[in-house]
Amino acid sequence: VSGFKISKSQSSSSLLVSIMFPRPPAVRRNISNFVDVFPRKLSVLRRLCSSYPTIAGSSCRPRDDVAVIANLIEKQHWSKLGFHLKDVNPSELFQQLISSELDPDLCLRYYTWLLKNRSISVSLELTFKLLHSLANAKRYSKIRSFLDGFVRNGSDHSVHSIFHSISMCGNVCVNSIIADMLVLAYANNSRFELGFEAFKRAGYYGYKLSALSCKPLMIALLKENRFADVEYVHKEMIRRKIQPNVFT
Questions:
Q1: Residue 9, number of CB atoms within 10 A of its CB
Q2: Which residues of 194-230 are buried (b: 16+ CB within 10 A; e: fewer)?
Q3: Which residues contact 197 (CB under 8 A, 6 or more apart)?
Q4: Strand, helix or coil at 137?
Q5: How far apart, in Å, are the Cα atoms of 2 and each of 5, 15, 18?
Q6: Where are the domains of the chain?
Q7: What is the mean pLDDT of each run of 10 residues along the chain (248 residues)?
Q8: CA 197, CA 185: separation in Å to the nearest integer?
């Protein structure tokens, strides 16, 4: 408008507009002065620019798309999966896969591949979260197989820490199933000392075991002439109302 003048109070805002919407080179102002005079406004601009979505064509991190990862696991495209995981923490992705309620069979497949090919140790808590998801899906045979390998390969985790991880799930029924299969795995692999400790620990936590796990444990203890421990197991079975079988 003719006769309109810009006041001093308007000069900073006008200058900010000129930077955000630059004029042709002939009339472009020197920005260095603005940086010196208005450093706080410049930091605001930088935050705005950094928060703006990335341009089209930039790759999305695999942890942002569980469906893509699940598809690669299902089709067993391990080389492609390895490429997607090069900038991602595998343990964080494993946590996300379990939390997303993905098919536990796929989570188990990813876990197995992770240990064999990435030389990465998964935390005990995440390991038993996987077993909880398998138990909720009634994949009992896979839990037995998993725990058998877990014990046979010489897990260096204490029975106390294992039961603490089991207890992280509030479902006592599911916890009892896992604890029962753990005792069975110890007994079948001649880890009678750990099996006996697991039997006692299950009683402390209130997890109900079965005669199917107690029988192999009693056999393992008998082979070591641990008669007092066998008697203890038998009495505890009666006290905990574990239904005995003919062998017991």
A1: 7
A2: bbbbbbebbeeeebbbbbebbbbbbebbeeeebeebb
A3: 159
A4: coil
A5: 9, 21, 21
A6: 8-51, 61-122, 123-248
A7: 48 50 48 47 42 34 68 89 81 87 92 82 91 95 96 87 92 96 96 96 96 94 95 95 81
A8: 13
